[in-house]
Design goal:
alpha+beta, two-stranded antiparallel ribbon, globular
Length: about 170
């Protein structure tokens, strides 16, 4: 389910990086509920080790030489590493993690929160940096952004659901 990005989300409040002025024009948030308590560490690990993300990780390893194995996912989830594949940790709290890509073009946000009626609400969102219009200096998005936005939204939903399925599978094994 698509939701409004919470006002206290690191996706909105974090202004680090090389060009903080480029952020704030596009961000999204998707959420699902799982019927048990899940902490941020478990959510991030389940997300990055889901079968869907492992395909992306394989592609990134081929194209960028970026490592995204289970040990790498565990290290960033546990907070013992500041990098994972093509991303670095922008900021972390007990319930939120913001990952920034090495090219400062995108950010990925993870959040866990108690769900009404029990369980955990898992949030995943993204932000995309705007380029500056050469004539006006205003933030601008190219045609390729608008063309690919539908795929990004679909893929974000698929990734979040895959993480929830991975969490369910992990709890059955425990």
């Amino acid at each position: 389910m698509r939701e409004t990005v919470p006002s206290d989300s690191l996706l909105k409040t974090y202004r680090g990086g090389r060009h903080p002025e480029r952020w704030g024009t596009y961000a999204d948030c998707f959420a699902v509920t799982i019927d048990r308590q899940v902490d941020l560490t478990d959510f991030v690990f389940a997300f990055y080790t889901s079968p869907v993300f492992r395909i992306e990780g394989f592609i990134l390893r081929l194209l960028l030489g970026a490592s995204s194995g289970k040990a790498d996912a565990r290290a960033v989830a546990d907070g013992t590493s500041e990098t994972f594949s093509a991303w670095y940790v922008g900021q972390r709290t007990v319930t939120q993690l913001l990952m920034c890509d090495r090219y400062e073009r995108t950010r990925s946000w993870f959040c866990v929160a108690p769900a009404a009626g029990g369980g955990t609400r898992l949030h995943f969102g993204s932000a995309v940096a705007a380029k500056r219009d050469k004539r006006t200096g205003a933030p601008a998005r190219g045609g390729e952004f608008h063309f690919l936005l539908w795929f990004h939204i679909l893929y974000s939903r698929v990734l979040l659901r895959a993480a929830r399925l991975n969490l369910r599978a992990q709890s059955r094994k425990a």
